[in-house]
Amino acid sequence: MESYYFWGQDKFKQLSTSLSHTQIDPFGNDASAVNNADNIDHMDVAPIAIQNGFTSLSGEGVWQNIPQSLFPNEDVIVRTFVRPDPQRSYAIVSLVKIDSKKISIGTEAGLRYPANLHKIAGPGKVPASIQQSNMLIAAFNGGFQEKDGEYGMIVGDKTYVPLKLGIPAVYLFEDGSLQFVDYMGQLIPPGVAAIRQNGPYLVHNGLLSAYEERDRDTWGRTLTNSLYTWRSGLGVAKDGSIIFAAGESLIPTTLAKALLAAGAVDAIQLDINPPWVRFFFYTPLGNGQYSSRILMKNMSNAGQTYLTGYEKDFFYLYKK
Description:
about 15% helix, 5 helices, 8-stranded antiparallel sheet, Phosphodiester glycosidase domain-containing protein, NAGPA, 5-stranded antiparallel sheet
C-alpha cells in the first residue's frame, strides 16, 4: 500500500512540475553565492551542459562562487545544480566543488555511528584544534552506520569499523588531500590520516560503474518503499578537486550522473534519506565560534551539532 502512495506522490511531483511556471531554486535565492566576477581568482571550472533537453533554469550548470571570509577575492568553493533524470525534471542534484590545493578535508566518527555494532564511540565533533584555529569552512555528512553494509572507518590509529575487502576506500591524507583506493587488504601507506568506505563506486576511472541499484543492502534502506530519496555522494576530479553532491528524489544512477557531469573521475555514495543528508558552511566569529548556513533550502540548519557533538560520522573542510 505504501509503495502505491509513493508512486502516486512521484507522479504528482512530475505533473505539478510540468504545469508550474515557477523557477526551481535548490538554494533558496541564497545571496551568499555570486557569479564569477572579474575581480577574483577563479577555480578552473567549465559550465555543465543542460541535460535531457530540459529548458534551462536560472543558474543551472553554471558554477557560482561561494565567497569565504578566509579567502577574500578567491573562489575556492563553487556550486551549481543539474537534473540528470530524464523522467524527473524536478530531481535536482546540487553540486559543490572544493579547491583541494587550498582547502583540507578531514573526518570524524560520530558519538554512536558508524560503529554501532562494535559500540565504539567517536568524538562526534570537529577537532578542537581546528575549531580554535578559526579556519573551519564547511562540513557534510558521512556514510552509513555499521549495520548497513559494515563499511570500514579508520581515523588516526583508531579502527571504528574494519575495512571491507573489495570495496573502494576514501583515503584522507595528512596533507589534506583525498584519494580513492581499491582496498584489497594491502598495507596502509604512511601519511594516511583517515579512511572511510561506503559501498561500491558510482563513478570509477571517469566512467559510470555497473551495479544493481535495487540492491538495498548496497545502496541503503530508504524511509519508504521507494528507491527515490535524498542521497549524497563524494567524488574527486582529475585535478584533485573534491566534489560533493546531494539532492532529493534520487536513485543511485541519478547521483552518479551528476557526479560524473561535475568532473568526478572516482565517486561513491555517502549517506541517504532526508534527516541525514546535510552540508553546512561556517563563518568564523573569532575565539573558536562560528555561525552556520545550509547548502540547500530544504536542509535543516543543524551545523552547530558538528561543533558540539553529533551521533553520526561526517567530513569537515578547513583552510590549509
